[in-house]
Every structure is written in C-alpha cells, then in structure tokens.
Amino acid sequence: MPEGEIDGSDASLPRACRKSGTLLVVAGALCRDGTVLISHRHEGKPMGGMWEFPGGKVEFSEDPEEALARELLEELGISVKGLRPISFATHEDMVLLLFRVETWDGEPRGNEGQSIEWVDVDALEQYVMPRVDAALLAPLRTSLLIE
Q: Which one of 12, 91, 92, 98 has the lowest number of neighbouring Cβ atoms within 10 Å?
C-alpha cells in the first residue's frame, strides 16, 4: 500500500492523518444512569468556555484507543477498562472519533482544574459545544437506545 493511505485498520489512521495534515482527536462519552459526562474548556484556550466530551489528540505512536485511555487518565483520573466506537465527525482539518466508555475504574474529577458535569442526555443541546462535538449528539443518543 502506498505510504499515507488508510488501510482501514486503526493503527494506520493516525499516521495517515498526520501525513495529510488532518488532526485526529478522540473523545469519550462516559454514561451513567441516563447522564453523560462533559467537560468545560478553560477560558483562553481555543473554544474556551464551551463544553465538550473529554479527550484529546492522538499522538503519532498511539492508536485511538490508547490515546483516549491516556487522555482520560490525565484529564479525569480514571482508568479505562472498556471502549466501544460510536461515530466520528469532521470539522475543517480535524476528525473527532467518539467512543462510549463502557467501564472504568475511579471516580471522574477535573484533574486539570476544569469543571465537569453529568448531564441528562436529552439536555446536552442546552450546553454550548464546539460544532464537532455537537455533531455527535444524535449518534450518541442512538447508541444509548441500542444498548
């Protein structure tokens, strides 16, 4: 396969995205009793003051699942035990992969000083979110109905 092409495996995706200039980001939907955890972005950062699904950038040497586990440990202090892909969304030069965090150890807390909130899944639209996160609300709801 020519260098930079995606072969469909998770391992090839970060490298292909880096070659094309596309930023690959992962996010986790932690769900508990009909609520979903969202995180408040710090003022002064890009999209500061908005609410988002916690997560972050995939490093060159990581696959998306590894990156999400690392990010959630750093941001929320939890150890991810089980993930299930939900959907993805794109915006400009970014691809956001959303995973349902099925199981984890620890109680989520804002390790980086950020506010976190458990929000009823039907109330998520009331929170100002980056466009790419908001695009994943419908697939998230659908995934919760299927469980």
A: 92
Condensed to tens digits (0 to 9), the pLDDT of residues 86-116 reads: 999 998 889 999 999 999 999 999 999 999 9
DSSP H or E run through 138: helix 137-146
Task: Write the DSSP string, 35-97.
Answer: EEEEEEPPTTSTTTT-EE-SEEEPPTT--HHHHHHHHHHHHH--EEEEEEEEEEEEETTEEEE
User: Exposure pattern of 68-90 as b/e (b: 16+ CB <10 Å)?
Assistant: bbbbbeebbbbebeebeebbbbe
**Domain 12-146, what architecture?**
Alpha-Beta Complex (3.90)
Q: What is the pTM of this model?
A: 0.84
Positions in the chain short of pLDDT 70: 1-20, 147
Report how far residue 94's alpha carbon sits from residue 123's, in angstroms, rounded to the nearest whole number.
Answer: 26
